[in-house]
Amino acid sequence: MDAGTPSNGTRHDVDSYSEELMRLVRDAGADRVGITTAAPLLRARQAIEERIATGMSDDMQFTFRNAERSTTPTMAVQGARSIIVAARSYYSESSSEPTPLVAARVARYAWRDHYEPLRDALRVAARRLKQDGHRATVFADDNSIVDREVAYRAGLGWYGKNANLLLEGFGSWFVLGCVVTTAELTSNNRVVSDGCGSCRRCIDACPTGAIVAPGVVDARKCLAWLIQKPGVFAHEFRAALGSRIYGCDDCQEVCPPSRRGAIERVEGDERSIVDVLQLLTLPDDAVMRMVGEWYVADRNPRWVRRNALVILGNSGLGKNEEVELVLLRYLHGNDDLLREHAQWAARTLGRGDLLRDDSLQSDPRDGEYAP
Ligand code: B12
Ligand code: SF4
Ligand code: SF4
Questions:
Q1: How do residues 63-92 score in pLDDT, each as one tens digit?
Q2: Which residues line ligand 3 (CB under 6 A)?
Q3: What are the residue numbers of the active site?
Q4: Structure pTM?
Q5: Could you state, in order of their start, the residue ranges of all structural domains in the chain?
Q6: pLDDT at 368
Q7: Which residue of 59, 80, 203, 333 is surrounded by the most CB atoms within 10 Å?
Q8: Distance 63 CA to ligand 1 centre (A)
Q9: pLDDT at res. 358
């Protein structure tokens, strides 16, 4: 038999094999599983090309680097015929960490690593497929494939106006991933119809007006991207950053189906808050340990510190002695970009006096770590 089960089997065999694979992924920890074909993701390709043409993709690489590749499953796995796609909840109501003087908020999907458990669940199906002689590769948040479109096509949910995929009955607090395989499987031939109706809360709640049309996020304004983007943090969005150090959840927090349907996942250690003053005084390796799996351009802690300085500027704690010491450290530092962000923070905190200090001309480093 060609590549195991069940290329010359009956429709019934294909159906039950597909069911069996979905069950394996569910049993291994996924909350929802579906199947679609490996046909090109043409709508996603068109959307990516439009975002590039209008400039809305900004400098993002990810799936935008090569739109043909990220929307052609057969380029990810040669001879691919089917895709098993899974969703896993990352919602956790709240975390019980102590609140530091200057607290920065982490978006829920990054409170702990949720991609690896999802990949583990998908690997169970991939192993079975390989045992049966098929090719099978797991992808989750990978540049090779546009996850939401695969999940949409497999009938897992609808695109909300906030561009997230909302699972029917459960909302959007889910990460998505898939197994692309050469096996022929039974696709879910259903499309979940729009569940947003006349609601537009996410559009109104977005702090920067980044949702420019239903389902269309202009990355140039989206805080989740601006936090990741290397370079100077755009002045016009510094106040809007508030206390976000990684990701932004506002367009999901306000979403009624996501509030109603969230599946609580309580397990393991979580980091929902970062101590900004601590972060700004740690050496490089400790900063990177602190942020763990976060996407940080070139794994350069400079971008994390840059964001932390903007948050410090938004803290309203200009009179605090510890805040002043940290600001001085960066105002005296030899990194021009960080110094500019520290100057902005000082001015925003009403501490322009710190900039007038003559000692700013000199470099006070004394062999200790200095930015
Ligand atoms: C690049 C990227 C980003 C970028 C750009 C986001 C974007 N909207 O494209 C930035 C950094 C901003 C980002 C932010 C976030 N991301 Co992100 N991101 C990705 C990544 C790597 C690629 C996405 C992509 O290719 N987009 C291409 C564009 C064209 O797709 P789109 O905006 O979804 O466009 C679709 C809709 O417009 C829809 N559509 C077409 N016509 C119409 C018409 C109507 C009326 C509607 C409503 C929709 C619609 O079809 C288009 C094509 O599929 C994926 C992982 C992956 N490999 O796929 C994760 C992914 C999309 N991100 C994810 C998450 C969790 C987030 C954040 C919630 C994280 C956070 N808390 O900060 C935010 C949410 C921001 C938002 N509102 O979208 C999850 C989403 C899970 C879900 N349930 O939807 C993914 C799938 C990662 C994963 N594997 O779980 N992300
Ligand atoms: S993630 Fe934040 S900034 Fe981006 S679209 Fe949603 S609410 Fe707006
Ligand atoms: S907030 Fe309303 S419009 Fe936005 S995604 Fe949720 S249901 Fe849809």
A1: 999 999 999 999 999 999 999 999 999 998
A2: 160-162, 196, 199-202, 254-257
A3: 141
A4: 0.94
A5: 11-94+110-181, 208-247+280-361
A6: 42
A7: 80
A8: 10
A9: 54
